[in-house]
Amino acid sequence: MAETKPTATAASKATSVQAKHDNNIISWLAPLVCTLAGYAIWRFMMGSADGFAEPDSSGGFWPSHKGPKDAFHRIYEGGIIVPLLIGMFLMVVVFSIERYLTIRRALGNGPIADFIRKVQFQLASKNVDAAIAECDKQRGSVGNVMKAGLRRYKEMIAEGGMSTDQKVIAIQKEVEEATALELPMMQKNLVFLSTITSVGTLIALLGTVLGMIRSFAALGEEGGGGAAADLAVGISEALYNTALGIGTSAIALILYNVFTTKIDSITHGIDESGFTLTQSFASLYK
Fold first, then answer.
1. What angle, rounded to 10 degrees, do the helices at 112-124 and 128-138 form?
2. Sequence-distant (≥ 6) Cβ neighbours of residue 241 within 8 angstroms
3. Which of the residues in the chain have pLDDT under 70?
């Protein structure tokens, strides 16, 4: 019986794209560390006994200091919601830095449009190896996707058992598989910024409401003109929660929009690179 050889179509199903292994420790470690850091700032800096006229000598988890000497220590009296808001602000800082570094790597070593033009020039000259060398110089997500497609492109040039349409489909499939591995890396952890954008204000309002409840409860117990003055102070302290939450949410929203805009530009470059490969092959190797 004659030996059965694998067909060209079956060989084309193999892919050179390798799955990326990512140990995303920051996604669960950063929220915990930032929350603890927020409590430490609130308890030991804002709640420092030196900043109050009547410090609570007993200490503990939530000392009852009275008479803050300045605005910074007055924020302490906003209550237990304040450390959560500080922790959320620190999360915005941490994840913004992490996303900036990741997206900066994904952008590569030069303008994406210039890189694609260089690859188009090399492909028009039928110099696939030079085009791959341009990918090695560019790096980044667009360079990685283009390189994966160019490897399949080079294989299809030498492939004799497939039609042009089948070869174009094989190249397109390779580009799609490479794209599917690159995009999640860029979008990862953006969910924290989008969540803080909406949840930050709600938590701040919760802190404000709790502060108002305490203030009005004190007014009902004490009564008199002195209690009205304490009520005004209590309301101002409660509003610190609102200010912290709105400020944190605004910063998170701005940074989220900046990062998504950068990702959209990279995605557009990836789409253009895939179109470049398929159109080049279809026109040059009919």
1. 170
2. 78, 79, 81, 82, 85, 204, 205, 206, 207, 208, 211
3. 1-23, 222-230
The answer to whether the predicted template modeling score (pTM) of the entire model surpasses 0.70 is yes
2-41 confidence digits (pLDDT tens): 444 444 443 444 555 555 555 578 888 999 999 999 999 9
* Residue of 216, 220, 219 whose CA lies nearest to 208: 216
pLDDT at res. 6: 40
Q: Structure tokens of 76?
A: 């302490």
Determine if residue 154 is left, alpha or beta; phi over 0 gives left, psi from -120 to 50 gives alpha, anything else beta: alpha
Q: Is the dihedral of CA 58, 223, 211, 209 positive or negative?
A: positive
> Is the Cβ–Cβ distance between 123 and 97 less than 8 Å?
no
CB atoms within 10 A of CB 281: 22
Q: Is 66 helix (H, G, I), strand (E, B) or coil?
A: strand
Task: Compute the Cα dihedral for 24, 17, 142, 169 and give only its sign.
Answer: negative
Place of tokens 């060209």: 8
- Alpha helix stretches (DSSP H) within the chain: 8-11, 26-40, 71-74, 81-107, 112-124, 128-138, 140-158, 164-187, 190-222, 224-284
